Amino acid sequence: MRKNILLICSILILLACKSGVPKDVIAPEKMKDILINIHVVDGYLMTYTSLDSSRKSGSVYYNSIYKHFGVDSAQYARSLSYYNQNPEKLSAIYQEVTTDLDKILKEEEKLDKQNVISQ
């Protein structure tokens, strides 16, 4: 009887440790990394003056992000839809995205200052 209870407790603990997302949804940590890259590309594309050029270049950049992380646009879209339907999970991901993007911005500003000083 004790073995059965121990086995059931072990299974419950293992199930509780999962990320809590369906198999076909990108895990939160990986989704965070993808979103960071997508937002960096979005910012870059905002500098384009031509909407047509932005669309053409954008698809190349986005596809390279998907390839880098081993996902496709359909899986990304399904995952984004899942997280939109689970705002607590999306909010947690975006808190990390925002923190990481702020770090990137501060590093870039620091490099810009160093470049101005060295010129």
TrEMBL record:
UniProt-listed PROSITE patterns: PROKAR_LIPOPROTEIN
Top-level taxon of origin: Bacteria
InterPro entries on file: DUF4296
All copies of domain DUF4296, residue ranges: 22-104
Pfam family, one: DUF4296
Protein name in the entry: DUF4296 domain-containing protein
Organism: Pedobacter flavus
